[in-house]
Amino acid sequence: MDLETIEENLFRGQSHDIGANHVFGGQVLSQSLQAAMLTLPEDRHAHSLHAYFILRGDETKPIVYSVERVRDGGSFSTRRVKAIQAGRDIFVTAISFQLEEEGMNHQIEMPNVSAPTSLKSDKELLEKYKDKLPDGFRRFLSARPIEFRPVDPFNFVSPSRQDPIRYVWMKAKGSITKDQEVQKRILAYASDYNLLSTAIQPHQDKVNYFQLQMASLDHAMWFHRPFDLEEWHLYAIDSPSASNARGFTRGNIFKQDGTLVASVVQEGLIRRRRNR
Fold first, then answer.
1. Active site (annotated) includes residue 266
2. Domains contained in the chain, CATH given
3. Which one is catalytic: 34, 216, 239, 263?
């Protein structure tokens, strides 16, 4: 996720191969957040980002991040970031930062679901079916920096219709710094997992997961409270709507003690793969 400084407001990032033959959306989210942070005073902290995925990124080439310093006010700072490959914008985002302030405090309750210690990881579950999975889908068996434990796992071999609701426990593998700005970059990375798959759950009896073309179109995220991703967090996701080859999803991320730490909204492309 770390970036190389090219010159003022310009940074370069490299890609991590997740086996998908393109740049992972969560990586660009995280690196864009880092690029914006590198142009800020230390007393400003990210609280929201709104992003659009424009073009499929090439994982074999570096990505240049151009930061526009839109505003530095008394309490808030705004940055606009473009991710560029081969002279073309592949991703754009606006990110807002704020001084820490006291104010009103409330939150919704965390859903009552099985504890992560009682569940298997998604990798363990996929290993069970690996001989029956298409080659392209085996990317999910590759090493990832985040461990996910679904409460109600997909059945990839004989899927049936499910409500568009999904609960997934997640945490970082290994030790990470307690620095909240780094933690936010990691959570932004992890937030791009599991969203669009929730939108197809009501349609699994009509279309096979492997027959679909899926891609993130836009992504918005809000950071509410401090957190530590060395500990388990619950990603509670639902999909209120799917139409016009797009799925709309939203998620809330809770600490294991029930504290709401972040919220996410995403819309993505979901269509049957076209015959070539």
1. yes
2. 1-100 (3.10.129.10), 116-276 (3.10.129.10)
3. 216
